[in-house]
Design a protein that fits this description.
The complex is a heterodimer. Chain A is an alpha+beta fold. Chain A is built from 19 helices and 34 strands. Chain A folds into 3 domains: 186 residues, Aldehyde oxidase/xanthine dehydrogenase, a/b hammerhead (Aldehyde Oxidoreductase, domain 3, Alpha-Beta Complex); 326 residues, Aldehyde oxidase/xanthine dehydrogenase, molybdopterin binding domain (Aldehyde Oxidoreductase, domain 4, 2-Layer Sandwich), CATH 3.30.365.10; 146 residues, 2-Layer Sandwich (Aldehyde Oxidoreductase, domain 4). A 7-stranded mixed β-sheet of chain A has the order 4-8-2-15-12-13-14, with helices on both faces. In chain A, strands 10, 11, 16, 17, 18 and 19 form a 6-stranded mixed β-sheet that branches. Chain A has a 5-stranded mixed β-sheet with strand order 1-34-33-32-22, sandwiched between helices. Chain B has 2 domains: 75 residues, Ubiquitin-like (UB roll); 77 residues, Orthogonal Bundle (DNA polymerase, domain 1), CATH 1.10.150.120. Helix content of chain B is 37%, strand content 14%. In chain B, a hairpin with a 2-residue loop joins β1 and β2. In chain B, α2 packs across α5 and α3 packs across α5. Classes of the chains: A alpha+beta, B alpha+beta. Chains A and B meet through α1 and α17 of A and α1, α2, α3, α4 and α5 of B.
C-alpha cells in the first residue's frame, strides 16, 4: 500500500517518458482524432448506400389499428417501406433482449412506449427517408399508460405485456439477497434504526455520438458486414446469427471508432436489425443513424429505482445491518443487460464498505410504458444504485447520531486483515485498505478546516455543505460459471503475435469507446515482453479480426481483457525463453528475464533481446527440440473473481439562499484501482465520471408526463453538465493491488460515476441542515432545492 | 440550387437542395467527416466549424447560407502538415477520449486563442460552455488550451529574439 497524492500537473514540460510498460504515456489513438480522422459509424460511406429512418410511436400505450404506407412508398427517392406486419411474415418482428425477454423490432400489435419503432423507410438520402416518414399513416387506439412503477403493481393496472403467453400482471421478476430473518433479528434489537425513502431517477447516458449502423449484405457470398455503434461486437454477432438465421461465420460486426458508450451501446436496438433487413431486401448497403431525440427516448436508459433504505446501529455508531426494499422500473421490455443469474445486476453490493452483521434486500421489477433498458450510464451493473443507497443512508445515520460522517464511516470500515472479505450478501471482496484512502481524501480536502469554515458560514446564514462518499465496486464480470449473458460466458480472448522484426500485434475481444485501449493494452503487453508500446499494434472491435469475448462495459476491460493480455504475453515470453536457451546454449533455468531480454544468470554480457528471439523464431536457424517456429500465442481468460476497486470522494458545495442554485465548489476524488497502468488515462476516466455525477445529482432526469410523453427528449430539456457546472477536479490515489489479477489491476472506468452522486447529494443535504432536511431526491435542481428549503421537496417521479 | 464556397482554402461548387444543412454538406457531399453531428438543437457543439473565421454550429447553418463565404473545418486546422498548437495541446494534456466532441472543441478553442492569446481558466470555460464533452470532465480541455497558449507565447518570444 502506498499513499501518494497525484503530482500537480505541469503544463510546461513534456512528461511523456514513453515507458516500456506502465506509466504516463500519450495515447496512440490521438493522432487520428485531433486531425478529424476518426472513423465513426456515420463516417462510413459505401457506393450505392441508402439511408434508413424509423417511424416511432407518439403514444406510450396504444393499439395499432392500421398502417398505410402507400403515400410514403410514392415519395421521392424511397426504395422500401417496412412495417411490423411485414417483419412478422418473415418471423422477424420480435427479437430477444440480453435479459431473456423479447422486444419488438417493429410493433405489430401495440406500441408500449413513446418512441417505439413502428415502421421504417429506406431512401436514397437521409432527407428523403425522413420526408417519407411524415407520409406513413398509422391509426392508433390509445390505451391507458402505466408510467409510475407503483401503479404497475396495482391489480387493475393495464396489462402491458399481453404478447407474453400467460402473462397476467406487470411483474418482471422478484429477487432477494441476504438473510431476511437474521437481518430482522438485528433490527429488532438495535439501539438506532434509520429509514429513508430514496429515489434514483431515470437518467440517460446520452453519448455524444448517437446509435447507428451500416449494414451491407452480400447476397452472393451470403455474408453480412455490419458497422455498428456497439460495445459488444462479438455478443451482437452471436445474437444476429440466432435472430436472423445467418450463419455466424458469415456475419462480420465491426465496431469502428465509438463516440462514447457509457452502456448506451450495449443492447441490440431495433434500428440495427432494421438496417440489416433493409440491406437484405434492397441488396444495397443501408445506413441508419438515429437523431438525438430518438437516442434519448428509445435507447437504454439507466437507474429508475425506488428504494427504501434502513440501517440499524448501536448508539455509539457501530453499523449492524442494512436492509432495503426496491421497486425497479424496467420499462416496456426487459432490455437490461446483466448476467443471467443477476437480474438486478450487482446491486447486492449495497452493503458497501462496512463490516455488517446482517443484510437483506428484496426487489420487485415491473414493466411500465417507458423505454426499455436499465443497465447503462457507467453503472457497473447497478452498483451506482447500490452505492447511492448505502452512502445516503449512512449519512442519514450520521445525522441521527449527530456524528461526523467521515468518522462514522471510518469506524465501520472492513479492516485490511479481513480481506478477502465475504459480505452478508455473498460477495467476496478481493482486497482493500480503506482508511488510508479516506484519510488521503480528507487531507487533500483540508477536511477539518472545511468544517470550521462551514461553521462560520452557518453562523452568518450562508449555505455551505460538505459531502462524503466511500464506495467499493465489484467490476470485471466475470467468472464464467457464475456469469453469462444469454448463455455466453463472460470470459475474454486475446491473441498476441510477434513479427520477425520484433514488432507485435495484439488482438482483443473488448472494444474501446474512448477508454484508450490502443494505448493501455499496448502498455500491458510491453510491460510483460519488453517491446515498446509504440511497436505494438492493438486490434479491436472487429469480429473477423479478434478472438471471441463479451465486450467493454461494467469496467470489465482491464480486469478481464487486461488480464488476458498480460497472460498471453507471458505465454509468448515463455516460448521466447525456450528459444533464447537454444540461442545462448544454456538451459532454460539458467536464464533470467530483464525487461526486453533474456540473459544468462550472473552474466549480463550474454543476453538476447526479444527482438533477436523473434527473428530467430521466424528464421532459418535451428530451434530447440519440440519448439515450433513463430512467436505467438492465444488465450481465453476466465477470471476467478471480480475486482473490487474503492474510493473516497469529498464534495464541497455552496448554495445561493436566494436562488437555491447549487454550486460545486470543490470535488476531491481519491481512487484505488490497484496497479495503475496509465495514470493519465485513469485520471481522465475519473474526471469524466465525476462530471456524470454532477449531471445526475444536479441536472439530469428523464421525466414523463402522466400520458407517458418523455420530457427529456432533447438536449434542451435533458441537461448535461457543461464546463461551467463542474469544478477543476482534484484527484489522488492509493494502490491496493488485486491479489488474483495477473498484474494486480482493478477496473476504474465507472468508479467516479458510481461514487460521486452520493457525495454531491450528501453535500447539498449537509448544506440544508439548518432547514431540518435529512434527504432530498436527485436531481437537485434549483426548484427542488428551493422546495427542500421550505420542507416540501417534491418527489422526482 | 448551386452553391459555391471556400472550404479549407479550396473553392467548391455543388448542386444542392436548398434545405441541406452545412454539417451534412461538409460530411456527406464533401466527405469531410471530421466535423460531427450530435444533436438537433445547437446544444452539443460537435458540429462547430468556422464561417469567415467565427465559430458556428454547422447543424444550424444552411449550406446555402455559406455560399460566397469561407469555411474552415478541423481538416484545415493543421497547416503545411504541422499540427496547430491546439491539436498538440489536446494530445499532450489528454483533452480528448472518444474524440467525438474534439474537432468542435478545437475549432472553438483556436478561435479563442486568436482573439485572446492568454486566456484565464474562467475564460476558457466560458468559451467552450456551448459545447458538451461526455468523457473528459473539461479540466483536461482547459489544460490543453493553456498548453497551447503557453507554447504559442514561447514560440512567439523565440521568434522575436531571433
Amino acid at each position: 500500500m502506498t499513499a501518494v497524492q497525484e503530482p500537480k500537473f505541469s503544463e510546461f514540460h513534456d512528461n511523456d517518458q514513453k515507458p516500456v510498460g506502465f506509466g504516463r504515456m500519450l495515447r496512440k489513438e490521438d493522432p487520428r482524432f485531433i486531425r478529424g480522422r476518426g472513423r465513426y459509424t456515420d463516417d462510413i460511406q459505401l457506393p450505392g448506400m441508402l439511408h434508413l429512418a424509423i417511424l416511432r410511436s407518439p403514444f406510450a400505450h396504444a393499439r395499432i389499428l392500421s398502417v398505410d404506407t402507400s403515400a410514403a412508398e410514392a415519395s421521392p427517392g424511397v426504395k422500401l417501406v417496412v412495417t411490423g406486419a411485414m417483419l412478422a411474415e418473415k418471423g422477424l418482428a420480435w427479437m430477444p433482449t440480453l435479459s431473456n425477454d423479447v422486444q419488438a423490432v417493429l410493433a405489430t400489435d401495440k406500441v408500449r412506449f413513446q418512441g417505439q419503432e413502428v415502421a421504417f423507410v429506406v431512401a436514397d438520402d437521409r432527407y428523403h427517408a425522413r420526408d417519407a416518414l411524415e407520409l406513413i399513416d398509422v391509426e392508433y387506439e390509445v390505451l391507458e399508460p402505466v408510467i409510475d412503477a407503483r401503479r404497475a403493481l396495482e391489480p387493475d393496472a393495464p396489462l402491458i405485456r399481453d404478447d407474453l403467453q400467460d402473462k397476467r400482471n406487470n411483474h418482471v421478476f422478484d429477487w432477494e439477497t441476504g438473510d431476511e430473518a437474521a437481518t430482522e433479528a438485528v433490527f429488532a434489537s438495535a439501539d438506532v434504526v434509520v429509514r429513508e425513502d430514496i429515489v434514483y431517477p431515470r437518467v440517460h447516458p446520452a453519448p455524444m455520438e448517437t446509435c447507428g449502423a451500416v449494414a451491407d449484405f452480400d447476397a452472393v457470398e451470403g455474408k453480412l458486414k455490419l458497422w455498428s455503434t456497439t460495445q459488444a461486437p462479438h455478443a451482437h454477432r452471436t445474437l444476429y446469427a440466432i435472430v436472423a438465421g445467418i450463419p455466424e461465420h458469415k456475419i462480420q460486426v465491426i465496431s469502428p471508432d465509438i463516440g462514447g458508450g457509457f452502456g448506451n451501446k450495449v443492447p441490440i436496438y431495433p434500428g440495427y436489425v432494421c438496417a440489416i433487413v433493409g440491406s437484405i431486401l434492397t441488396g444495397k448497403p443501408v445506413k441508419w443513424m438515429e437523431d438525438r431525440s430518438e437516442n434519448l427516448i428509445s435507447t437504454g436508459f439507466a437507474r429508475d429505482y425506488i428504494m427504501r433504505g434502513e440501517i440499524a446501529a448501536t448508539r455509539d455508531g457501530r453499523i449492524l445491518a442494512i436492509r432495503t426494499n426496491v421497486l425497479a422500473d424496467h420499462g416496456a421490455f426487459n432490455g437490461t443487460a446483466a448476467p443471467v443469474k443477476y437480474p438486478a445486476g450487482f446491486f447486492g453490493v449495497f452493503t458497501g464498505s462496512y463490516d455488517l452483521q446482517a443484510a437483506y434486500c428484496k426487489m420487485t421489477a415491473v414493466y411500465t410504458n417507458k423505454a426499455p433498458g436499465g443497465v447503462a450510464y457507467a453503472c457497473s451493473f447497478r452498483i451506482t444504485e447500490a452505492v447511492y443507497l448505502v452512502e445516503r443512508i449512512v449519512d442519514c445515520l450520521a445525522d441521527e447520531l449527530n456524528m461526523d460522517p467521515a468518522a462514522l464511516r471510518i469506524k465501520n470500515f472492513i479492516q485490511p486483515d479481513q480481506f478477502p472479505y465475504e459480505t452478508k450478501t455473498g460477495w467476496v471482496y478481493d482486497s482493500g485498505n480503506y482508511e488510508p484512502t479516506m484519510r488521503l481524501a480528507m487531507d487533500i480536502a483540508g477536511y477539518a478546516e472545511l468544517r470550521k469554515e462551514q461553521e462560520e458560514k452557518r453562523a452568518r446564514g450562508e449555505l455551505m455543505g460538505i459531502g462524503i462518499s466511500f464506495f467499493t465496486e465489484a467490476v470485471g464480470a466475470g467468472p464464467r460459471k457464475h456469469m453469462d449473458i444469454l448463455g455466453l460466458g463472460m470470459a475474454d480472448g486475446c491473441e498476441l503475435r510477434v513479427h520477425p522484426t520484433g514488432k507485435a500485434v495484439v488482438r482483443l475481444s473488448v472494444q474501446t469507446q474512448g477508454q484508450g485501449h490502443e494505448t493501455t493494452f499496448a502498455q500491458i503487453v510491453a510491460e510483460e515482453i519488453g517491446i515498446p508500446p509504440a511497436d505494438i499494434e492493438v486490434v479491436h472491435g472487429d469480429t473477423d479480426q479478434t478472438p471471441f469475448g463479451l465486450g467493454t462495459y461494467g469496467s470489465r476491460s482491464t480486469p478481464v481483457s487486461g488480464a488476458a493480455a498480460a497472460l498471453v504475453a507471458r505465454k509468448v515470453r515463455d516460448k521466447a525463453q525456450l528459444i533464447a536457451s537454444g540461442m545462448l546454449e544454456v538451459s532454460v533455468a539458467d536464464l533470467e528475464w530483464v525487461k526486453g531480454a533474456f540473459q544468462v544468470k550472473g552474466d549480463p554480457g550474454k543476453s538476447v533481446t526479444i527482438q533477436d528471439i523473434a527473428f530467430r523464431a521466424h528464421g532459418a536457424g535451428d530451434l530447440p527440440e519440440g519448439v515450433e517456429g513463430g512467436l505467438e500465442a492465444q488465450i481465453c481468460y476466465n477470471p476467478s473473481n471480480l475486482t473490487y476497486p474503492h474510493g473516497a470522494y469529498i464534495c464541497v458545495v455552496d448554495i445561493d439562499p436566494g436562488t437555491a442554485q447549487v454550486k460545486v465548489r470543490r470535488f476531491i476524488a481519491v481512487d484505488d484501482c490497484g496497479t495503475r497502468i496509465n495514470p493519465m488515462i485513469i485520471e481522465g476516466q475519473v474526471h469524466g465520471g465525476l462530471t456524470d455525477g454532477v449531471g445526475m445529482a444536479l441536472m439530469e432526469m428523464i421525466a414523463f408526463d402522466e400520458d407517458g410523453n418523455c420530457l427529456g427528449a432533447s438536449l434542451m430539456d435533458y441537461l448535461i453538465p457543461t464546463s461551467l457546472e463542474v469544478p477543476d477536479w482534484e484527484t489522488g490515489y492509493t494502490v491496493t493491488p488485486s491479489p488474483h489479477h495477473p498484474i494486480g489491476a482493478k477496473g476504474v472506468g465507472e468508479s467516479a460515476t458510481v461514487g460521486s452522486p452520493p457525495a454531491i447529494v450528501n453535500a447539498v443535504v449537509d448544506a440544508l441542515k439548518p432547514f431540518g432536511i435529512r434527504h432530498a431526491d436527485m436531481p437537485l435542481t434549483p426548484s427542488r432545492v428551493w422546495d427542500a428549503m421550505r420542507g416540501r421537496a417534491t418527489p422526482p417521479i | 440550387m448551386q452553391v459555391t464556397m471556400t472550404v479549407n482554402d479550396v473553392e467548391v461548387t455543388r448542386e444542392i437542395e436548398g434545405r441541406l444543412l452545412l454539417v451534412h454538406f461538409l460530411r456527406d457531399v464533401l466527405g469531410l467527416t471530421g466535423t460531427h453531428w450530435g444533436c438537433d438543437t445547437s446544444n452539443c457543439g460537435t458540429c462547430v466549424v468556422w464561417l469567415d473565421g467565427e465559430p458556428v454550429k454547422s447543424c444550424t447553418v444552411l449550406a446555402a447560407m455559406a455560399g460566397g463565404h469561407e469555411v474552415r473545418t478541423v481538416e484545415g486546422l493543421a497547416g503545411n502538415g504541422e499540427l496547430d498548437p491546439i491539436q498538440e495541446g489536446f494530445m499532450q494534456c489528454h483533452g480528448l477520449q472518444c474524440g467525438f466532441c474534439t474537432p468542435g472543441m478545437m475549432m472553438t478553442c483556436r478561435a479563442l486563442l486568436d482573439r485572446n492569446p492568454d486566456p484565464t481558466d474562467a475564460e476558457i470555460r466560458e468559451a467552450i460552455s456551448g459545447q458538451i464533452c461526455r468523457c473528459t470532465g473539461y479540466s483536461t480541455i482547459v489544460r490543453s488550451v493553456r498548453w497551447a497558449s503557453v507554447h504559442e507565447a514561447a514560440a512567439a518570444q523565440q521568434e522575436a529574439n531571433a
